[in-house]
Design goal:
alpha/beta; Rossmann fold; 3 domains; elongated
Length: 499
């Protein structure tokens, strides 16, 4: 473990296998997913296979997006960056997986600040960020903070005691039956009514009330068309996110490369994302302590930014640079590095993360249980399959079965194995797992077989008066005894399935 926070994870391994391993522990718990997958530009990247046939690329993305959807919380969202090569096909694919009604927006990020003179047709200046919600009706984006530019529109030329304000248009195009009266200015000029095709926003009675309260601006000479005042103290302190993000607001690719060079001393990735871009995504989609996943972690930007703004995170990266680049970058974050967004968020260092590698898969390519799977992993899959509820992601239930056998500060920690056969009680049913593969002992005495003695031990140590579901290698109890004890027995490996 690095630092003092074991909740954050950096996982080295194939992201498809890692996502499968995370499902029984984190399904429905992730508030935001951000991924920056290979753009399939038909150019070979050093760290990703970015030269796939179109159908291969879609086939690569599909199962990963399906698993990511299962990880999302009901009020969660997924953000996927892409350029024009695959963005429109990705939109159709995500419509199928997440539902077209859960499409939120296509955010356009202007990533370049100067045209590329080498472009054959057009200089590509933008990327797409496709945003989907798990359930659009439940997802509410956080408002963006107001900018200094927005606040500069508010002034106070008449020394209004309510403070800074800006004028608003009294006329609107929406029909209003009480919005067609004449108005007499303090200068004596009469405004016969609103401009053609429009109506005053308020009734004459309401207008007089606002004027008496000093909420109408007539201009310095009292001769202007009246304008209602909008006070800075009365407006929302946040603004609704928009779908065009300029590089002035969230950074550009050159800024991102400079951030990488400042950390590693050389360029690592061809298409890194600036920390300011990631900060905006996470501030719109999450709140402090929410869980974020990036399964194409790359140079580690998502994890670094999540760390600095107090979000929990899981980052997955398959290449060796998970060790050579992602770990060092997060170590620098813990130490308080001042690059990227650090100064803007007053980052001073702290926190930590665990680094893990994938061990034995719980299931093979045919969906059959792997006989080498550890108890904690199998227990989590059984519990999730039966209840639909993820198991608590504590160390004893690690989703990563085989950390390298090392110990000590700054290494992969050895995760202990859960030993209790009682997995939990859900809707009045108790679930048990008789599996002790960690000992390599399959004798009945080891507790893998449901015998009269094992059942007696369960009833004595883990009693439950209601229905029981017990998983084991086999049972020595007859149908009558199982029925009398309200037991449904399920055999390992045949009755163990992925949800």
């Amino acid at each position: 473990m690095y630092g003092n926070n074991a909740e954050n994870l950096l996982i080295q391994g194939d992201n498809l296998l890692a996502l499968k391993a995370l499902i029984p522990f984190y399904a429905g718990r992730v508030k935001c997913i951000f991924i920056d997958p290979p753009y399939n530009t038909q150019s070979a990247f050093a760290h990703y296979d970015d030269k796939l046939e179109h159908s291969q690329w879609l086939s690569m993305m599909y199962p990963r997006l399906v698993l990511l959807r299962e990880l999302l919380a009901e009020g969660g969202s997924i953000w996927v960056t892409m350029d024009d090569n695959e963005a429109h096909y990705l939109k159709v694919l995500m419509d199928e997986i997440f539902g077209r009604n859960n499409f939120v927006a296509n955010v356009v990020w202007r990533k370049n600040y100067a045209p590329k003179s080498s472009a054959r047709h057009f200089s590509e200046d933008h990327d797409h960020i496709l945003v989907y919600a798990k359930e659009a009706k439940l997802w509410i984006p956080n408002p963006m903070p107001r900018s200094e530019k927005q606040d500069k529109a508010y002034k106070n030329p008449d020394s209004d005691p309510r403070g800074l304000w800006r004028p608003n248009n009294l006329a609107a195009r929406n029909f209003y039956s009480k919005g067609t009266y004449p108005i007499k200015c303090p200068s004596g000029r009469v405004v016969d009514g609103p401009p053609a095709g429009s109506y005053w926003r308020v009734s004459e009675e309401k207008f007089r009330e606002m004027d008496s309260d000093g909420r109408i601006w007539w201009g310095k000479d009292g001769n202007n068309v009246p304008a209602p005042k909008i006070y800075l103290t009365e407006v929302k302190q946040g603004v609704v996110p928009q779908t065009f993000w300029s590089y002035e607001e969230v950074g550009h690719t050159q800024e991102a490369k400079k951030e990488i060079v400042s950390i590693f001393g050389h360029d690592v990735f061809s298409t890194p994302k600036p920390e300011r871009l990631m900060k905006r995504v996470l501030e719109i989609a999450t709140k402090p302590n929410d869980l974020v996943i990036d399964s194409f972690l790359g140079s580690g930007t998502t994890a670094a930014v999540a760390h600095k703004i107090s979000r929990r995170y899981i980052g997955i990266e398959m290449g060796e640079h998970a060790r050579t680049h992602c770990i060092p970058r997060l170590q620098k974050v813990i130490a308080g590095e001042q690059g990227g967004i650090s100064q803007a968020v007053n980052w001073q260092g702290g926190g930590g993360f665990r680094f893990c590698t994938l061990g034995e898969a719980a299931f093979d390519e045919h969906g059959r249980i792997n006989p080498a799977v550890r108890f904690a992993t199998l227990a989590a899959f059984v519990w999730h399959f039966e209840t639909g509820i993820p198991s608590a992601p504590h160390a004893e239930n690690s989703p990563l079965p085989n950390p390298p056998p090392q110990a000590g500060e700054g290494t992969n920690e050895k995760i202990p194995v859960r030993s209790s056969p009682l997995l939990g009680i859900h809707n009045g049913t108790a679930y048990y797992l008789l599996y002790n593969g960690i000992l390599g002992d399959r004798r009945p005495a080891s507790g893998n077989v449901l015998t009269h003695a094992v059942l007696q031990a369960i009833n004595d140590i883990f009693p439950h008066a209601g229905r029981k579901v017990i998983y084991g290698e086999t049972t020595r109890l007859g149908a009558a005894r199982l029925s009398a004890e309200s037991i449904t027995f399920k055999q390992i490996p045949y009755d163990v399935k992925m949800r």
